[in-house]
Amino acid sequence: MTLRDIASFRPAIPADVMEPDGWAVVGLPANFVSGATAQTLAGSLLGRPAEVRFTPVGYAWASSDGGSVASGSPGATWAQLGAREFSATDTSLVFDERGTFQVQPTVTFTAEYRFNGSVWRTIDGTLDVPAPVRSVLVGEFDTVLVAGDCNERPTGPGC
Questions:
Q1: Pair 14, 56: CB distance under 8 Å
Q2: Confidence grade of residue 7 (pLDDT, cut at 50, 70, 90)
Q3: DSSP for the chain, written as a single string
Q4: Which of 32, 66, 108, 155 makes an SS bond possible with 58, Cβ 3.0 to 4.6 Å?
Q5: pLDDT tens, residue by residue, 87-108
Q6: pLDDT score at 98
């Protein structure tokens, strides 16, 4: 059995999460998290009732600016990691210049099959499934120290 034999079985396109959502700051990490999970699909294989199970084993994000990151983990949000916003993670990208960039997430799956509830049999090879491309607006920001918040000093910078 090969991946070509199970071509009629297609894992769902995995969703992903980006922190911050849709934007990033030049020089600071943007965090990406895949929502891919194991999936079992029922159908017909070689004319017999069968199931095919897809298990995610690799995750990658490639940016149109040339940056990329690959991981054996789907990643986690900063909150799940107990990390501060803009902390580096195993699945973060750093953008070096301003602009709008496209990020292509891809999940790598292994596949197994079985007929009529028999034991699972591994299929050699892996299957790369691209998720929808995400547009990321990258900009710069400056911090300003002020003597109080805008309620205390309504004429202060940025108020």
A1: yes
A2: confident
A3: --GGGGTT--PPPPPEEEESTTEEETTSEEEEEE----EEEEEEETTEEEEEEEEEEEEEEEETTS-EEEESS----HHHHT--TT---TTEEE--S-EEEEEEEEEEEEEEEEETT---EEEEEEEEEEPPPEEEEEE-------SS-TTT-TTSTT-
A4: 108
A5: 999 999 999 999 999 999 999 9
A6: 96
Buried b (16+ CB within 10 A) or exposed e, 20-30: eeeebbeebbb
Asked if 157 contacts 149 with a C-beta cutoff of 8 angstroms, the reply is no
